[in-house]
From TrEMBL, chain A:
Heterododecamer (2C3:3R2) of six catalytic PyrB chains organized as two trimers (C3), and six regulatory PyrI chains organized as three dimers (R2). It comes from Dechloromonas denitrificans. NCBIfam families: asp_carb_tr, PRK00856.1. Carbamoyl phosphate binds at residues 65-66, 115, 149, 152, 278-279. The gene is pyrB. Pfam families: OTCace, OTCace_N. Residues 169-315 form the Aspartate/ornithine carbamoyltransferase Asp/Orn-binding domain. It is an enzyme of class 2 (transferase). Residues 14-161 form the Aspartate/ornithine carbamoyltransferase carbamoyl-P binding domain. This is Aspartate carbamoyltransferase.
Length: 319, 416
């Protein structure tokens, strides 16, 4: 099957999902991001790689953090950034997703950063661009439904590499609501592609997708067992609406079983790092003492996120 | 008008006929002879069917006729001479006058025969019974909820009791409302990978188990439509083994495609019920091979705008009337099914489910005939289809098997 993310030379032209990308491309993105870390430390935090190009932030779903970091990243690459909050504009007037894309292409967009509530929406856009012959316009997925959040996955990999250096000796645990998490799916594909020998998923059966083992993941229901001797813990956000159905009885019971407390963290390796894609629910999935503790690398994740997004945008727009 | 169809391979599965180079004689709209002309027969029209198969017209157990003229033209272009129409039109077919109008419109157009399914409940809401006897009188062949479940089990029980009183058949697509309402794809590996909300197999098996139990209690004749899973098929086989009056069908796409065909969120691979796993597909195929299940097109025309959407927002379904024959032939080839058995699943098999004396070519039967070239290939393109529904996972693919002529009641209603 043709992978719409790659051109015929195997170069990245859109970033839609981590799945299906070869290790060399993931490493290329991480290496490029490393070179951009230095830019953010400068007094003049800019490079001219995307000068004259227009980046459209198309957010069909609300987000503050992701949109802001994409905006900062695009500006540091000297691009013109246009933020579109679609909830409040065309979609409410009945314009279809692809009509919106056609209109923005007519405004000479070069790159779309797309967040959408439906899994697969960025694929629809990328395929449409190919159909209308606009191979000069690129798409970066900033989160689609439950499917993928590839830049978050990549910044998580950047963070792990920064602290742990080598992927091939690690045990990584992902904890919480994996069923509804696009971050978890992107992390799983990135970790397995980069050669992490043991990826664990920890959560109650109601929050785990079926056949998770087929993605190369070991499933644990008991957090005490699952955290034993891990090097990296990725906590996932538990959304409040999960508590209203039959998935979970209460936030309190969830925290008792799957909340990361100092006691549970002690089961992991002494130098284990704790990650979280944000925004955190303190006291629901993570204890404040852990979130603010010495093993947490949650704020560095955000900083790395800017460099990773600069890397992704410069690579896809350069190909 | 007297017609003779010459030089074809006549396949009439119900009567065990498979004869090469045979002539089929038609007089006064009925089959008048096979091999030998009836006494005094003078042909007004000769159709040369050399290289072609001559078989009963196809009977499609499920086709939505959103724009009736175009879709009935599509039917006969696909060799389909009778279409069973589910009641989920706009408005739903829940009043005798609506059924009456549909039947008359079908007769006016004069292509394929229209066999409507009346709504089992008013507005297909699953609450109050529609006027079943009145609908029957207006021409409805059975009663159905299309793909809308009856959520209230008591309402389902009463509907089946009432239908059993008059010996009406009830057609149900087994899908538990609660387990399917939020889902958009088979709850399996692909849905997990792509982050699509899943519909578990249990949505189908729970509904079948409930319906079969109610058949046991009420004696109501039930036809289960569009079965999608191996476990569902096993339950139906057991019910038949127990002697219960339960039949079933599968959509032809489910015989050929699986969840893997969703690929990168292809909205044309979204179906109701969803495409399931490979073992499910194989079980459906086995059921079709054995004759446990009939095959239908589940023709669902969907406009381009309703498919050019993210997977979960796209409308489910595919165009089917003009691909029922080539896809059934494709299935027969991969499943190593004899041509006459494959033809049976789309002719006399469905007729048996409907309780109609049709779908065969015995002397005196209505001359509903399909003449097709089993070797002819054609490309599925929007232009190649007469249906308004161009939505197909096979767009751009080559199809093998093409209809040359279609006769309904001894009239040539299509030829190419």
């Amino acid at each position: 099957m043709h992978n719409p993310q790659l051109n015929k030379d195997g170069e990245l032209i859109h970033l839609l999902s981590v799945e299906g990308l070869p290790q060399r491309i993931l490493t290329q993105i991480l290496d490029t991001a490393a070179s951009f870390m230095e830019v953010s430390a400068r007094e003049v935090k800019k490079v001219p790689l995307l000068r004259g190009k227009s980046v459209f932030n198309l957010f069909f779903e609300n987000s503050t953090r992701t949109r802001t970091t994409f905006e900062i990243a695009a500006k540091r690459l000297s691009a013109d950034v246009i933020n579109l909050d679609i909830n409040k504009s065309s979609a409410s007037k009945g314009e279809t997703l692809l009509d919106t894309i056609d209109n923005l292409c007519a405004m000479h967009a070069n790159l779309f950063v797309v967040r959408h509530a439906s899994s697969g929406a960025p694929y629809l856009i990328a395929e449409h661009l190919q159909r209308i012959g606009r191979d000069d316009v690129h798409v970066v997925n900033a989160g689609d439904g439950r499917h993928a959040h590839p830049t978050q996955g990549l910044l998580d990999m950047y963070t792990i590499r920064h602290y742990k250096k080598d992927f091939t000796q690690l045990r990584v645990a992902i904890v919480g609501d994996i069923l509804h998490s696009r971050v978890a799916r992107s992390d799983i594909h990135a970790l397995t592609t980069l050669g992490v020998p043991e990826v664990r998923a920890i959560g109650p059966e109601t929050l785990l997708p079926k056949h998770l083992d087929k993605l190369g993941v070991h499933v644990f229901h008991d957090m005490n067992e699952g955290l034993k001797d891990v090097d990296v813990i990725i906590m996932l956000r538990l959304q409040n609406e999960r508590m209203t159905g039959a998935l979970l009885p209460s936030a309190g019971e969830y925290f008792r079983h799957y909340g990361l407390t100092p006691q549970k963290l002690a089961l992991a390796k002494p130098d284990a790092i704790v990650m979280h894609p944000g925004p955190m629910n303190r006291g629901v999935e993570i204890h404040s003492a852990v979130a603010d503790g010495s093993q947490a690398v949650i704020l560095p994740q955000v900083t790395f996120g800017i460099a990773v997004r600069m890397a992704v945008m410069s690579i896809v727009a350069g190909n | 008008m007297n017609i003779v169809i010459e030089n074809g391979r006549v396949i009439d599965p119900k009567n065990g006929v498979d004869r090469s180079n045979a002539s089929l004689y038609i007089a006064a709209g009925k089959i008048a002879g096979l091999g030998q002309a009836p006494a005094g027969f003078v042909a007004d029209k000769v159709i040369d069917a050399a290289g072609c198969v001559v078989c009963p017209g196809l009977i499609d157990l499920g086709a939505r006729l959103n724009s009736i003229e175009a879709e009935l033209a599509a039917a006969v272009a696909g060799g389909v001479t009778s279409v069973v129409v589910p009641p989920d039109a706009d408005p739903p077919l829940d009043e005798p006058e609506l059924a009456d109008r549909l039947v008359h419109r079908g007769e006016e157009i004069g292509k394929a025969r229209v066999l409507p399914l009346g709504a089992l409940t008013l507005g297909l809401k699953g609450e109050r019974l529609a006027e079943l006897a009145g609908l029957k009188k207006a021409g409805c062949v059975a009663f159905s909820q299309a793909n809308k479940p009856v959520i209230d089990t008591e309402a389902l029980l009463r509907a089946m009791e009432y239908a059993a009183t008059f010996d009406f058949a009830v057609w149900l697509q087994p899908q538990d409302y609660w387990l399917s309402r939020n889902g958009i794809a088979h709850e399996g590996e692909v849905a997990s990978r792509l982050g699509l909300a899943g519909i578990p197999v249990a949505a189908e098996t729970i509904a079948i188990a409930t319906i079969v139990q109610l058949v046991r209690d009420t004696g109501c004749r039930v036809h289960l439509t569009r079965i999608s899973s191996a476990a569902g098929m096993a339950l139906i086989q057991r019910a038949q083994h127990d002697g219960l009056p339960v039949t079933c069908d599968v959509g032809v796409h489910h015989l050929l495609l699986t969840e893997n065909d969703i690929g990168f969120f292809n909205p044309h691979a979204r179906f109701c019920p969803p495409l399931r796993a490979q073992n499910d597909r194989l079980a459906l195929s086995t059921a079709a091979v054995s004759g446990l299940a009939a095959i239908c097109s589940d023709h669902t025309p969907v406009g381009a705008d309703d498919k050019l959407l993210p997977f979960g927002e796209a409308k489910p379904g595919a165009t089917g009337l003009e691909v029922l024959l080539p896809l059934t032939l494709k299935w027969a080839e991969t499943a190593k099914v004899a041509l006459s058995d494959a033809v049976a699943r789309i002719t006399c098999g469905p007729a048996g489910i409907l309780g109609l004396d049709s779908g065969h070519l015995a002397l005196g039967a209505a001359a509903d005939v399909c003449i097709f070239d089993p070797q002819a290939t054609w490309q599925l393109t929007p232009e190649a289809l007469k249906s308004r529904g161009k939505n197909s996972p096979w767009q751009g693919y080559m199809m093998t098997g093409q209809v040359r002529s279609t006769l309904v009641g001894g009239r040539v209603v299509f030829s190419r």
